[in-house]
């Protein structure tokens, strides 16, 4: 797991959490974020008739709902070649300098979005 240079233990943890939530729910994507206090939040894609969120938007929403005031990093596990701009924008709302990692379902980090 984790190519694209070497991830530190905390970044590897959020990739693992994102991978786990995706596998557990069978969703298109799994995501995890780490707030500035070191707490982590994980979520999967939400596709309801009245509500649609990417996994990353859902993870950011969970962090905000728990009182997070900033984000240090985010990770998304997906088969997609790119992340939705709205997903990355949600991270940027709370963490302008937070890296956003995109990993495949095996946990291999394929891209790192930096501000």
List key phrases describing it.
single chain; five-stranded mixed sheet; 115 residues; alpha+beta
Description:
The protein has 115 residues and is an alpha+beta fold. The chain is 33% helix and 27% strand. The chain has three helices and seven strands, in the order H-E-E-E-E-H-E-H-E-E. The protein has helices at 9-25, 55-65, 85-94; strands spanning 30-35, 40-44, 46-47, 52-53, 71-77, 100-103, 109-113. The strands form two sheets. The chain has a five-stranded mixed β-sheet with strand order 2-1-5-6-7, with helices on both faces. Helix 2 packs parallel to helix 3 (85-94). The radius of gyration is 12 Å and the shape is globular. 44% of the residues are buried. The model has no long low-confidence stretch (mean pLDDT 94).
Question: What's the layout of helices and strands?
Answer:
Elements: H1 9-25, E1 30-35, E2 40-44, E3 46-47, E4 52-53, H2 55-65, E5 71-77, H3 85-94, E6 100-103, E7 109-113
Parallel strand pairs: 5-6
Antiparallel strand pairs: 1-2, 1-5, 3-4, 6-7
